[in-house]
Amino acid sequence: MTASFPRAEVVIDLSAIRHNVALLASRADGAETMAVVKADGYGHGALEVGRAAVEAGATWLGTCSLGEALALRRAGIGVRLFSWLDTPDVDFAAAVAEDIDVAVSSLDELARVAAGARRARAFSGLNALCRVHLKIDTGLSRNGCPPAEWPALVKAAAAEPLVEVVAIWSHLACADEPGHPSIDAQAKRFGEAYDLARAAGLNPMRHLANSAAVLTLPDLHFDVVRPGIAIYGLNPVPVAEDLRPAMTFKSSVVLTKRIAAGESVSYGHTWTAERATTLALVPVGYADGVPRTLSGRMDVWLAGRRRPVVGRVCMDQLIVDCEDDEPAVGSEVVLFGQGTFGEPTAREWADKLGTIDYEIVTSMYRPRIHRTYLEAGS
Fold this sequence. Notes:
Layout: E1 9-13, H1 14-26, E2 32-36, H2 38-42, H3 46-55, E3 60-63, H4 66-74, E4 80-83, H5 93-97, E5 100-104, H6 107-124, E6 130-135, H7 150-159, E7 163-169, H8 181-199, E8 205-207, H9 211-216, E9 224-225, E10 247-252, E11 255-259, E12 264-265, E13 271-272, E14 277-282, E15 299-302, E16 305-310, E17 318-321, E18 332-336, H10 346-353, H11 357-362, E19 370-374
Parallel strand pairs: 1-19, 2-3, 2-9, 3-4, 4-5, 5-6, 6-7, 7-8
Antiparallel strand pairs: 1-10, 10-18, 11-14, 12-13, 14-17, 15-16, 15-18, 16-17
Helix pairs in contact: 1-3
């Protein structure tokens, strides 16, 4: 059998996903757990992560688009599915037909959802309703109904015979900063929105808590919690938690060469060897999610230790300084992983780039990156 030397590979540890979901569900204080698998499971694979999350106790899965939710349902996912952001041309009849909950943030959106339910009834002959979650903007100023328009929305939703209002919800802006004053302000607005919904004759569930709020704000767990980044093992709060990163990004050595002192490396000759050294060529670059801005600022894990990437990261390759070692062609190169053995992590990349680890892992969904799944012990 020919040995496998991956050009670019992300390995997803599904046992880590299960561990993280079980941990978060245990912290939910009796609320149901909605595992968020939007953006192809934050780059980890929505279907595989979704199945693992359900096995670990998630009773809902959350997506951004209806298309993402439909793909899960048609692949056999049977738990409640919720999608919350679509373009005006989307036909919500599919949500009714496939039993998917959707978000509504405006009177116009409510009308489009009701029209979708009407089309679904005409097509199927069933008296199906579209299940909706009304979203109130409590201060993120992104999606969601402005407070001034909320009374009209809840009144119209309560009177609309083709929808069933099952929940109200919102999203926190600064839950990852414990003690931030916006948290209490948003919670107060959310409570006021709930009271108005009840006064309009609705009896909805409530959900507000993202990953950070699941871990630090038990008073905001309500009926359903919506962990996202934490189910992938990336910690959104500044305190240690028993979360296990699920993604490892790997490649392999394809060539080694010895260069003399004074020789320079890669475009622009931004790095010059001060002594004779061995270089290892790794066939991944910025086309594979390795930011060019990490040139000269990143390490990899190769042959049992960290080693620096030297010179500029190219579109398809990067160069590692191995000093007097000469790794074998085919040697595994870990660009980031769980950090267990000292290898770089997605958080380390994010910190160096001045961004968040969400951006790092979601950028791993690329055509040349092969995705592999591991179970416990495999």
